[in-house]
Design goal:
The chain is mostly helical and 127 residues long. The protein has 7 helices and no strands.
């Protein structure tokens, strides 16, 4: 719900009703709706990274073809979340952390072509 609606269209009351918690519990854990969204995104990100690392059997080489493939499979696995996230927030925050990864992993993986790397990423998210 939080990622599928505009932030200003969501109320704490609505979230509490949908989850069965009271407002006091909500505010005990989150200062506001943006704090909830940040927590959701952080949790999803952490889960994704853990699954990628499991698939890589602890190999830390994020510049390998296997790591790129694992990352793309993870994006496809949770594509509804990533699609909603990027539609809602765009790529500004993600770009801060991924610019180096894109330049050093995705682009070389696709023969140095930024457009081919971007196209591949978009195809996976739209499967």
């Amino acid at each position: 719900m939080v990622l599928n609606k505009k932030t200003n269209q969501i109320s704490v009351r609505e979230i509490c009703e949908a989850t069965g918690i009271n407002r006091s519990s909500f505010y005990l854990h989150y200062a506001d709706i943006p704090a909830l969204i940040t927590a959701i995104v952080w949790e999803k990100w952490t889960e994704s990274v853990e699954r990628i690392h499991e698939e890589m059997h602890g190999d830390p080489n994020i510049f390998s073809e296997a790591y790129v493939a694992a990352t793309l499979r993870e994006a496809k696995r949770d594509r509804a979340f990533y699609r909603a996230y990027f539609e809602k927030f765009g790529t500004a925050e993600v770009e801060k952390g991924y610019q180096t990864l894109f330049e050093n992993v995705f682009k070389p993986f696709f023969g140095g072509s930024a457009s081919r790397a971007s196209t591949a990423w978009n195809i996976i998210l739209n499967l």
